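Sample intake sheet
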Amino acid sequence: MKDFDQDLMSIQETRNLIANAKKAQEIYRLFPQEKVDMIVKAVAIAAEKESIKLAKMAWQETGFGRWQDKIVKNKFASKAVYENIKDLKTVGIINEDKVKKFFEVAVPVGVVAGLIPSTNPTSTTIYKTLISLKSGNGIVISPHPNAKKSIAETAKILNEAAVSAGAPEGLIGCITMPTLEATNVLMKHKDTSLILATGGEEMVKAAYSSGTPAIGVGPGNGPAFIDKSANLSLAVKKIMDSKTFDNGVICASEQSIVVEKATRNEVINELKKQGAYFLNEEESKKLARFILRDNGTMNPQIVGKSVEVLASMAKLDIPSNIRVLISEQSTVSKNNPYSREKLTPILAFYTVDNVEEGIKLCTEILMNEGKGHTLVLHSDDENIVREFGLRIPVSRLLVNTPGSLGGIGGATNLVPAFTLGCGAVGGSSTSDNIGPMNLLNIRRVAYGVRELEELKETESSQPSISEEYLELIINKVFEKLVVLNK
C-alpha cells in the first residue's frame, strides 16, 4: 500500500509540475531576448558557483566516477555551454533575407521533459536547463532514482537563480519522488511538448514510443583506431586520459583500441608504460562475468568504478598504480562483453593487418553496439581521416583528441552538450550535439515572388514532343512487339 501511495503522490506531483511549467512558459515565451539572456546568465553563474558542492553530492550518492572530474563536468555544463549559447538569437525574428523576401521566427516548443541519467546527473541537469531556458522553454526534470538528491539540489539552485533574475515561478520543475509511473506521465502528458532523453536504451525507446516528440540518444561504444602515421605516445596518452576521466562514464569515451599489426608491439608497450594492464585469458574470463547482466545489459555495479574496485570485484591480483584494464580480443558480438559499451576503465584491444581491415572492424564494432555515435581516430594522414569520415557510421569522428572530452565539445569545437544524437542509423531523430536550436521550431514567413502566369510560362517554355514523332515511336515499338511474338 505504501508503494502504491508513493506512485500516486509521484504522479500528482508530476502533473502539478507540468501545469506550473506550462503556465510559467506562457509568460516566459513573451520575454524579449535581453531578459531571456539575463536569466540564462544568472543560472549559469549560480551553477558554476556550486559546481564543487554538486560534484561531491553526485559522487557520494551514485558512487560513479571521481568527484574531482565531476567538478570539471559541472563547470563545462555551466560555463562552456553558456559561452557557446550566450550570443545566439533565439527570440523573435532570428533570420531575415530581404533579397529573397523571407524571414524566420523562433517559436519555443513549450514544456521540455528533461530525463536525467545517474552517470552525469548534475552536469546534465545544468546543461538541459540552460539550453531549455535559452530557447524560451520551461523544463520539468525527471531524475534517475539513484541520483535524485543531487539532481533535485541542482534543480533547486538553478530555479532560485532563475526566479531571482526575473523568471516566472514554475519554469524549472523537478520530480522529487521519481517513479517509472511519474516518468511515463511526464512523457505522455498533453502539455509536454518535447522529451529530451539521456539514459539507458530502454528509457530512450520509451521516450520515442510515448507519442510525444523526442530527442533521444543511443549507447556509445566508440572504438579508437590508431593509424601507423600517428604520434603513438600522444595517441595512447589521450586515450588513457579519456578512459580514466570520471572513470569512463561519459558515453563518448573509448571502448576499444584497434591498431595495425605493424605498430602493435609499440602501442602495447606504450600502453603499459602509461598505466595499462593487459589481462591474461583467465583474468579476462573472470572480469567478463561482471561486465554484462543476464539480460545482456551493462552491469551497473561496474559503472564508473576504479580499477582497484573492479579488480576486487573479480578477485584479480592487479599491480598498484594501474589506470586501465585491457583485454585482447578477436571477436565482436552481443555475447562478447569486451566488444560492448563499458562505462568504466576497461578497454578491448584488437589488431588488424591494415587500415582497410581497421575500417571494417571498427564498423563491425559500431554496428554491434554504438552505431551512429562516436569514433576516435589517431592519424596524421589526411587521406585516412577523409576515408574514415566518408565510411564510418557515426555522427562524430574525433581526430587526435580524447573521446570523452572531444565528443561533448570540450576538446573540440563541436557544440558543448551532454546529449549526443546518433542519427537515423542509431535510432535517433538527429545526429547533432543538442543545443538550444534543437529545442525551437522555426516559423518561416515568405512573400510571394512569382505569379501563376510566370510559372506557366516556365512550364510552356520546355520543349515538347511533336505528335508526329510520338506516333513514330509508338509504331517502332509495335513493330518490335510483332517480331518478338513471331
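Comment: The longest helix spans residues 2-28. DSSP finds 17 helices and 15 strands in the chain.
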